[in-house]
Design a protein that fits this description.
The chain is of the alpha/beta class and 280 residues long. The protein folds into 2 domains: 4-28 and 63-149, 3-Layer(aba) Sandwich (Rossmann fold); 154-278, 2-Layer Sandwich (Hypothetical Protein Tm841, Chain: A,domain 3), CATH 3.30.1180.10. The protein has 11 helices and 14 strands. The protein has helices at residues 15-20, 45-53, 66-77, 95-103, 119-133, 138-148, 162-166, 172-181, 204-218, 236-249, 262-268, and strands spanning 4-8, 23-26, 29-32, 35-38, 60-62, 83-87, 109-113, 152-153, 155-157, 183-190, 193-201, 226-231, 254-259, 273-278. The strands form 4 sheets. A 4-stranded parallel sheet has the order 2-1-6-7, sandwiched between helices. A 4-stranded mixed sheet has the order 8-14-12-13. It has a 3-stranded antiparallel sheet with strand order 4-3-5, with no helix packed on it. Strand 12, helix 10 (236-249) and strand 13 (254-259) form a beta-alpha-beta unit. Helix 3 packs across helix 4. It is globular and about 55 Å long.
């Protein structure tokens, strides 16, 4: 029997990919304006951006409890199936800790600390789907994912620093300086945590082009199966420019454009864009 694959909604996979690959998505809770919403069920990133841009505070996420995970895992395994469940990096949330604890109470559940977020987590899920189609068992797939999880290259270029400032990730001086100099930080996941890798100067279009060129120069050996161009309600010219350069400089079999969800989008803001893939 094929095993099941599930993930918290922080993976930012499109509904099309979710349906096509039989992935179960567990919607996390978003707290906005003192009210609780289910991610991508009761609220989406466009609504969050509108709320914040109109003066509201950034949303907060509520980690899934151990009890909720136990209920989820029992539901997914009730027919005897094994399950691999993916969480956002343990350095950003306690979801992994809670899920791992819950898995002790339910037989046949493997929990992956992705050490990624957004489509970086999504890339690992899609590889698990690949391995499942190849006939690997849940345990074999779980072991392979642990081997490659730090090879997922998760990075974004941020257009506006006001969201990072509201979230306490940059100071007022840095915010003002970035506005004056038109700086756009390139942030990457390193060992499970976000870090600023570089800062581009100029308009966002120029910054995106330099970013993709830098990726091509840095990563010459990569899994060609797929690449994600993930963005937060970005202007179409930015998405088109990124795609054109990815097509020119890389040799991916499939280029997937997808939208960043509330976790990334609410902390980075509109026009944030990333090119994400797995390094070999």
């Amino acid at each position: 029997m094929k095993f099941r694959i599930s993930s918290d909604s922080t993976c930012d996979l499109s509904q099309e990919l979710i349906d096509a690959n039989d992935i179960y998505i567990n919607a996390i809770t978003i707290i906005l304006g003192g009210k609780a919403y289910k991610d991508n069920v009761d609220i989406n990133i466009t609504q969050v951006l509108e709320y914040v841009d109109n003066g509201g505070d950034l949303p907060k996420t509520s980690a899934v409890s151990v009890e909720e995970y136990v209920e989820l895992f029992k539901k997914l395994t009730e027919d005897g199936s094994e399950v691999i469940h993916f969480t956002i990096s343990s350095k950003d949330s306690s979801c992994y800790e809670h899920a791992a604890e819950a898995a002790k109470a339910v037989k046949g559940v493997y929990v992956v600390d992705s050490l990624q977020l957004s489509s970086g987590q999504g890339l690992l899920i899609m590889k698990a789907c690949d391995y499942r189609e190849e006939g690997m068992s849940a345990k074999e797939t779980f072991d392979k994912i642990l081997e490659i999880r730090l090879k997922a290259r998760t990075s974004f270029v941020v257009d506006r620093l006001d969201y990072l400032h509201k979230g306490g990730r940059c100071s007022l001086a840095q915010l003002l300086g970035a506005k004056m100099l038109k700086l756009h930080p390139h942030i990457s996941m390193v060992d499970g945590a976000l870090t600023v890798k570089k800062k581009y100067m100029g308009n966002m279009l120029r910054s995106i082009k330099q970013y993709v060129n830098d990726l091509a120069e840095t990563y010459t050996s990569y899994d060609k199966t797929r690449v994600f161009i993930t963005h937060c309600n970005a202007d179409q010219e930015l998405v088109d420019a990124a795609r054109a350069l990815v097509e020119e400089l890389f040799e991916f079999d499939t280029i997937i454009e997808t939208h960043a969800g509330t976790t990334v989008g609410s902390h980075c803001g509109k026009n944030t864009l990333g090119v994400l893939f797995i390094e070999e």
